[in-house]
Amino acid sequence: MARRPVEPPAICDLFICDVFAASPKDDLGTMEHPIFSLSTKPDRRILSYEHNGVSIEVTPSVRGRATIHDKDILIFCISQLMAALNAGREIGRTLQLKAHDLLIATQRDTGGDSYLRLREAFERLAGTRITTNLATNGVEVTSGFGLIESWEILRRTRGGRMISVTVTLSDWLFRAVLGRSVLTLSRDYFGLRKPLERRVYELARKHCGRQPEWRVSLAVLHKKSGSTAPVRVFRAAIRKMIEEAQLPDYTLSEEPGDVIRVSRQGLIEDETAIGLLPPFDPDVLDAARALVPGADVYALEAEWRAFWVASGRPRLTAPDRAFLGWLRGRGALGA
Q1: Burial label, 328 (beta-carbon count in 10 A; 0-12, 13-18, 19+)
Q2: Is the pTM of this model over 0.85?
């Protein structure tokens, strides 16, 4: 039976951020490559990066390069757009959001200083310029752009605190949303306060995928992280990260030869081994992709298996139909 062609998403001029339970989403491009600064001080150095045919140059403004904590704004915007897209709503690259909602969603304090830091983050995001040949939504064009095109405070309190803000994303980032080139993050990501922890989590989430583990040399991890620390200092930081074990969903360990192993936590591996829940056929996974376009179906499969175990392993006459039914409910919520 021929598949019904997928209709392109409808585009509107202004998108209102109003999905309160949107799952955190991050775009694959900035998860893979070190766009954001890991420094806690203004970073005004020009970053030049090349890896596997991708070249990126990041030029900061006088206020410094956008930081990985500034990226929370983009994650919030992408999450809102993807939730709306999955629900069949019109979306646009100009978004209107409430500053308080953004702070709550990204687990930040809502005191007066937080609004000032939010404004500074908008300024760094708009001022940071990127030149790259990195493709989004299947389009590879060498171009220069800001992480956001513009932002504007629409309303303030009497004390000057921002209430409502509009932000226009770059075409490059909006294409990533339209192409559903995103992955779901753990909500605990926002609880990671150390920049390097956030960056290593991004790389773990991007590279593990369905794999139970990912091995990477310390040298490559150092390069992909964007850390400017010497390798010996970076190695010490990774060893401390291994000891503290704070990353959501992943465990780090060190292997001989300066190799770091990243393992997924909570994998349901014994169920398939003992035949209680056999692996799904490829057509089941294709049906899952059709239900939740752009989602990481392998991660969702693992989450469903964990849900099944936590529910007491009820007897299932048709695990594939149970999985797809669970996904239908998830898809309605923008999972």
Answers
A1: exposed
A2: no
Q: Considering only 171-175, 189-193, 279-283, 329-333, which range has the smallest mean pLDDT?
A: 329-333
Q: What pLDDT was estimated at residue 237?
A: 97
Long-range contacts of 106-114 (CB under 8 A, 24+ apart): 106/72, 106/75, 106/76, 106/190, 107/187, 107/190, 107/191, 108/72, 108/190, 112/159, 112/161
| Euclidean distance between the first and the last CA atom of the chain, given in angstroms as a whole number | 27
pLDDT for residue 334: 39
The SS3 of residue 91 is strand
Strand ranges inside the chain, DSSP E: 15-16, 25-27, 47-51, 54-59, 94-98, 129-132, 143-146, 148-156, 162-169, 182-184, 213-217, 250-255, 259-264
278 three-state secondary structure = coil
- Amino acid 32 reads E
Helix (H) or strand (E) holding 253: strand 250-255
- Cβ(107)–Cβ(191) under 8 Å? yes
For the chain, the average pLDDT equals 86
For residue 140, the tally of other CB atoms under 10 A from its CB is: 12
E strand spans, 157-234: 162-169, 182-184, 213-217
Q: Are 26 and 81 in contact (CB under 8 A)?
A: no
The more confidently predicted of residues 146 and 124 is: 124
Please state which of the ranges 29-33, 89-93, 272-276 shows the lowest mean pLDDT: 272-276
How far apart, in whole angstroms, are the C-alpha atoms of residue 108 and residue 305? Answer: 32
Question: Measured between alpha carbons, how far is 297 from 320 in angstroms, rounded to an integer?
Answer: 13
Q: Which residues pair with residue 51 across a beta bridge?
A: 54
CA 90/CA 100 separation, integer angstroms: 24
SS3 119: helix
Top-confidence residue, 1 or 266: 266
pLDDT digits (tens, 9 = 90+) for 53-87: 888 999 999 999 999 999 999 999 999 999 898 88
